[in-house]
Description:
Elements: H1 11-22, E1 27-34, E2 40-51, E3 57-66, H2 68-82, H3 92-108, H4 124-139
Antiparallel strand pairs: 1-2, 2-3
Amino acid sequence: MSLLQGEDTDPATIKQLRVGIAQQREVHVVIRNYRRDGSVFWNDLYISPVRDESGQVTHFIGVQNDISEQREYQAQLTHNANHDALTGLPNRAMLGQCLEQGCTLARRYQRFIAVLFIDLDDFKPINDTLGHEGGRFYLG
């Protein structure tokens, strides 16, 4: 198993796997691994002990699924939920999250936080006249 892991494979997940196997119990994890060619993939991994008639573990069976596409899709959904579809810029939902995080950090470290908010009125005529590419040019 270690041949498929890299330095950014989560150590806690690796430990969870090792402890489960050492304790001869079922383990289910999602882990970032590597193919032989070095490319990254997300692995949904389930390992279970197989016992003989006397209850002794004779071996383990593992089932794994490459869930990279699912993870990419989830990441895209998260991005879409937090960014404007036209500009790609963070939206108000993301602004709220960033402000909350910034305020938490400012309180923790007794620092100040500043916010600059720019509202573009009547931007629609620019998009209507120049198209979305023209609008992006002015925003970019």
